[in-house]
Amino acid sequence: MTKPLFPSEHDIPLAHRVAEPIEQEHYLCNGALKVWAGPRQEVWSPVWVATPDGLVQKRVGSYPLLDEPSALQVLDAACTAWDRGCGVWPTLSVEERIRHVEAFTHRMTEQRDEVVRLLMWEIGKTLPDARKEFDRTIDYIRDTIDALKDMDRGASRLVIEEGVIGQIRRAPLGVVLCMGPFNYPLNETFTTLIPALIMGNVVIFKPPKLGVLLHRPLLQALADAFPKGVINTVYGDGQQVVGPLMASGRVDVLAFIGSSRVADLLKQQHPRPHRLRCVLGLEAKNAGIVLPDADLDLAVKECVLGALSYNGQRCTALKILFVHRSVLDDFLARLVESVGRLRPGMPWEEGVSITPLPEPDKTTHLSALIEDAVSRGARVVNPGGGRVERTFMSPAIVCPVGPGMRLYTEEQFGPVVPVVPFDDLNEPMEYVIASAYGQQVSLFGTDAQTLARLIDPLVNQVCRVNINSQCQRGPDSFPFTGRKASAEGTLSVRDALEVFSLPTLVASKDSEGNKRIIRAIVTGRHSRFLSTDFLL
What we know:
Blueprint: E1 22-23, E2 26-29, E3 32-35, E4 40-51, E5 54-64, H1 68-82, H2 94-109, H3 112-123, H4 127-154, E6 159-161, E7 164-172, E8 175-179, H5 187-198, E9 202-206, H6 219-225, E10 231-233, H7 238-247, E11 253-257, H8 260-269, E12 277-281, E13 286-290, H9 296-308, E14 318-324, H10 328-340, E15 343-344, E16 352-354, H11 362-375, E17 379-380, E18 388-389, E19 392-393, E20 396-399, H12 406-409, E21 416-422, H13 426-434, E22 437-438, E23 440-444, H14 448-458, E24 464-467, E25 483-484, E26 487-488, H15 493-499, E27 501-509, H16 512-523
Parallel strand pairs: 1-5, 8-9, 8-11, 9-10, 11-12, 13-14, 13-23, 14-21, 15-16, 20-21, 23-24
Antiparallel strand pairs: 2-3, 4-5, 6-7, 7-27, 12-26, 17-20, 18-19, 22-25
């Protein structure tokens, strides 16, 4: 007898249960957790639970739906903390800001189990991946601290050029609005939030619509670790709370990871867009290109990981595979076998790879993409591919996909793997060149000369060419960005510090009087900026 996909309540291990719904009442504003008495948003898990009356979607809890006045109150708190660049936080030394971030990191590690549990329940992330997301976020914060120390050491000296004495450091930009994505609601949010904070900016943080409650255990730590108003949160409908923030003109930096459509709307709402700096991580339709001489076992392994890790819900996922017709049948047979071994189930179950999808009506959307391709000559080649049960969809391998099908150009962001046969290398090359997106590409082959001929034009179309490996973000020391409609700004550990700051200098003519003044400031340690202190 086949085991049911969705569990009953008593089948869920005690350590992973949500015993009672989590009713979040607070939002962080001006250093305090303020109680919200207004309307609330229900949080439903992608996990359904079997009951005597049938399957019931698990309710995880609720969170505040703030209104425009409360959002503007949060903005006032942030602007007061910034104080036109004169506030306590932006004028602290680098060493002092690092101490605050370290204090928060220590408190954050205490909440690991609760955050991991909510990552499973809110967005359906597997237990190992949820733990990895949390641990990688902690590592990212520590790496950011190390990178800032290294950057500051290089700036801790005066330079003399052409008769001018100067010291060049990086200074913050102002009020930053951080908005992260649901698929990595902790990690990708913190890859903008932490560098923005540590560089001296003040932050308004809006969690994604999915993955809100997992931030609740961190609110008190944020309130305790930073001066009041330096970090604030808003919750609710974008039109109600984000629109007024942008329309105020008082947001200096938009850090947003999501769709280009929403990014465009947000930018258009700002009355002075030339003053708004944007750090954007947007869509991608990353292609994998399997050449005739590819090691098919390796190619299939990497393509399965690249296309279906976290159900394909990653901007770096392989979202379309071009396979040379001479190896197509062999590749498909191995791909079908490998995908068939992926275990479906609940996030906490050992060995599970495919889990329920958190976005409402996502299975309906993906089914429509598959139906469109099938109506235009493609077929689902793996047994059971595309099967839907409530919020769950079995991975579907669709072939042959080609121009005119929605799967050919649309980013599916789910467990659907489009396969495009090709005869001439110009076909996948033209696809990448014509694509609206330009994040990454993966090449699978063994001939060095052929790969080299592809690499040279592809680096002008995407920002990362992967050889015999899936597309991915890490390691975090590598640049993470994109061309075309895929990104604006670069997010690696060091790049993020630079993108949330500006090189700024104090300079004077090289005269004895000016030297005397500079020497007095430095030796007396009267300035945090004009300083030769060396961070250890």
